[in-house]
């Protein structure tokens, strides 16, 4: 999932650029590209037993750090058609199970590698 998201950020950045919170300094494209590279690095770290624990913790932090982009999307899409609005709103609580999953991966990786 992380690798696919990372590739998507790099290959088709425009949708991600639009949800970068406007209060952040600099270019949205920079945030999009950096988050894509980070997602690829996290995916690689999760795939290898020696780095899985650290990557799991970093992934949990990453999922928490990108939450403001989901909030921005929900704000921007609040007047969108119902299906689009539902997607934006569904992303908000989805961060919780993603963070829990990443922490579980880190916990289960303890002692491996």
Descriptive tags:
mainly alpha; 113 residues
Average predicted confidence as pLDDT = 94
| Cα shape | globular
Low-confidence stretches: none
Output the helix-strand order: HHHHHH
In percent terms, what proportion of residues is strand? under 5%
Q: Helix content range of the residues, please?
A: over 70%
Determine Rg (CA atoms, Å).
Answer: 15 Å
N-to-C CA distance: 23 Å
How many domains in all?
A: 1
Number of strands: 0
For the largest beta-sheet, the strand count, sense and barrel status come to: none
Number of helices: 6
Structural class of the secondary elements? mainly alpha
Textual characterization of the structure:
The chain contains six helices and no strands. With 113 residues, it is mostly helical. It starts with a helix and ends with a helix. The model has no long low-confidence stretch (mean pLDDT 94).
Which SSEs are present, and which pair or pack?
Elements lengths: L1 H10 L2 H6 L8 H20 L4 H14 L1 H10 L5 H28 L4
């Amino acid at each position: 999932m992380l690798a696919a998201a990372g590739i998507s950020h790099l290959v088709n950045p425009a949708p991600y650029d639009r949800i970068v919170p406007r209060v952040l300094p600099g270019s949205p494209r920079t945030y999009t590209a950096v988050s894509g590279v980070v997602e690829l690095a996290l995916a690689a770290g999760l795939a290898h037993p020696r780095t899985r624990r650290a990557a799991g913790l970093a992934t949990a932090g990453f999922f928490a750090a990108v939450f403001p982009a989901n909030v921005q999307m929900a704000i921007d899409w609040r007047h969108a058609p119902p299906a689009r609005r539902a997607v934006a709103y569904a992303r908000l609580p989805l961060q919780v199970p993603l963070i829990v999953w990443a922490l579980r991966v880190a916990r289960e990786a303890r002692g491996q590698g």
